Amino acid sequence: METRSQKDIMVMEDQDLLVEDEHTDTIIPEREREYVDRRRIALAASMISGIALTLAAISPETRRRIVTGFFEQGLLVGLSIGFLLVTLSLLFSSGQRWDAELFRSWNRLGLENHRLNRLMILVTQVGNGLFAFMSAALLYITGHRRLGLIVILGTLSLWLTVETIKFLTDRARPYLAFEEVQVVGWKARGRSFPSGHTSQTFFLTAVAVDYFQVGAILSLGLYILAVLVGFSRVYIGVHYPRDVIAGAILGNVWGILGSLISTYLFGGPV
Question: Average per-residue pLDDT in the chain?
Answer without folding.
Answer: 77
